[in-house]
């Protein structure tokens, strides 16, 4: 029997290249090896978007369309919406009872978000419990492997601790401690060299038109030491070259590197070519996306099938948990 894996994404906006390289590519490659559950984490999204949740519904459909366009195959994997499976919240409350406050207050992602997420008020009761709900997501499906980016490692560590604490307190081995399966591709930076993020306006969206992609690429930061075209460049510190490493062939990437260090090509030409490469890369995704956008009913059917698959597993685990806890 194949091992089961679960991963999730919050429907807080449109998806960009960072999601594609950082998660979706990895997800789609795991589909044959594992029994996959991919979840739209709308409760997690509500924890930061509760003041204006009006976009969540359309983001759910939009994100699932992007997932499928990027190679997530609903025939192979279960795609479902977290809030349609009530057991997530049931297991969340069970784990909440058993999780010491200190574990959550010390969590580095929590401290970082309180500091950096200045456009949202996340000093709330629920937001502190964000990793507890994530642990419930993962353990509800007894997922032993969780494909995530590096930023999620503290949540995986907490999930392991919560699983171990449950087993210890209940004197029964209900949950195995899951491992993170890190995305193999290095993290793709935004156009300005910071983390690619919607709130920084430094992303290339999967729904951007070819013109917008070309324009955004022309605005990318390059090697700051290369001022004149005759200056030799430093591809290893240039974000544009990093994109070549991810999206272009190894031969072209090596060629650009040589031309850059010998000042044989200018940054403008280098970026123009990158724009073409990204547009070629995105073309099949755009095409698929355009087709799926016309058939929202099909997306709903896919999510219904996913819900049924998820519900069966969730019920089984939660029955076991209720019995174990005695409730
Ligand atoms: N916290 C994850 C993120 O922001 C989303 C998420 C929610 C998740 N539940 C999950 C990821 C369970 C993996 C497993 O990316
Ligand atoms: Fe970067 Fe290309 Fe300019 Fe070299 S030529 S510094 S790789 S943009």
Summarize the topology.
Elements lengths: L3 E6 L7 H14 L4 E6 L1 H8 L6 H14 L8 E4 L5 H12 L2 H5 L2 H9 L8 H4 L1 H11 L4 E4 L4 H18 L8 E4 L27 H9 L20 H9 L2 H12 L5 H27 L2 H30 L2
Helix pairs in contact: 3-13, 4-8, 4-14, 8-9, 10-13, 11-13
The protein binds tryptophan (TRP) and iron/sulfur cluster.
Overall geometric form: globular
Structural class: mainly alpha
Q: What top-tier CATH class of the largest domain fits best? A: Alpha Beta
Number of strands: 5
N to C succession of SSEs: EHEHHEHHHHHEHEHHHHH
Low-confidence stretches: none
Domains, number = 2
Mean residue pLDDT? 95
CATH topology of the largest domain: Rossmann fold
Name given to the CATH architecture of the largest domain: 3-Layer(aba) Sandwich
Helix segment count? 14
Strand order of the largest sheet: 1-2-3
Task: List the keywords.
327 residues; mainly alpha; Rossmann fold; Tyrosyl-Transfer RNA Synthetase; 2 domains; three-stranded parallel beta sheet; two-stranded parallel ribbon; 14 helices; 5 strands; globular; binds tryptophan; binds iron/sulfur cluster
How would you describe the overall organization of this protein?
This protein is mainly α. The protein has two domains: 215 residues, HUPs (Rossmann fold, 3-Layer(aba) Sandwich); 80 residues, Orthogonal Bundle (Tyrosyl-Transfer RNA Synthetase), CATH 1.10.240.10. It contains 14 helices and five strands. Strands 1-2-3 form a three-stranded parallel β-sheet. A two-stranded parallel ribbon has the order 4-5. The radius of gyration is 22 Å and the shape is globular. Bound molecules: tryptophan and iron/sulfur cluster (SF4).
């Amino acid at each position: 029997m194949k091992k089961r894996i679960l991963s999730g994404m919050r429907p807080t906006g449109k998806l960009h290249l960072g999601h594609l390289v950082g998660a979706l590519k990895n997800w789609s490659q795991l589909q044959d090896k594992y029994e996959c559950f991919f979840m739209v984490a709308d409760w997690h999204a509500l924890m930061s978007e509760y003041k204006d949740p009006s976009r969540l519904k359309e983001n759910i459909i939009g994100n699932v369309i992007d997932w499928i366009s990027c190679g997530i195959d609903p025939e192979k994997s279960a795609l479902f919406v977290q809030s349609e499976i009530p057991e997530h919240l049931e297991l969340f409350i069970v784990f909440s009872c058993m999780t010491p406050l200190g574990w959550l207050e010390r969590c580095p992602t929590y401290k970082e978000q309180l500091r950096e997420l200045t456009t949202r008020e996340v000093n709330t009761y629920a937001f502190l419990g964000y990793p507890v709900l994530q642990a419930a997501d993962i353990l509800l499906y007894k997922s032993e492997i969780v494909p995530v980016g590096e930023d999620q490692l503290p949540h995986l560590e907490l999930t392991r601790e919560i699983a171990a604490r449950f087993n210890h307190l209940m004197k029964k081995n209900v949950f195995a401690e899951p491992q993170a399966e890190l995305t193999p591709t290095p993290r793709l930076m935004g156009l300005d060299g910071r983390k690619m993020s919607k709130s920084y306006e430094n992303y290339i969206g999967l729904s951007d038109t070819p013109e917008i992609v070309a324009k955004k690429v022309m605005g990318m930061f390059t090697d700051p030491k290369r001022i004149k075209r005759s200056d030799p460049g430093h591809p290893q510190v240039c974000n544009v070259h990093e994109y070549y490493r991810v999206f272009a062939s190894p031969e072209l990437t090596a060629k650009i590197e040589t031309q850059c260090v010998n000042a044989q090509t200018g940054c403008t030409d280098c970026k123009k070519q990158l724009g073409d490469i990204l547009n070629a890369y995105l073309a099949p995704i755009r095409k698929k996306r355009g087709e799926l956008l016309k058939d929202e009913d099909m997306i709903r059917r896919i999510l219904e099938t996913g819900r049924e698959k998820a519900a069966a597993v969730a019920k089984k685990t939660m029955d076991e948990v209720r019995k174990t806890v005695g409730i």
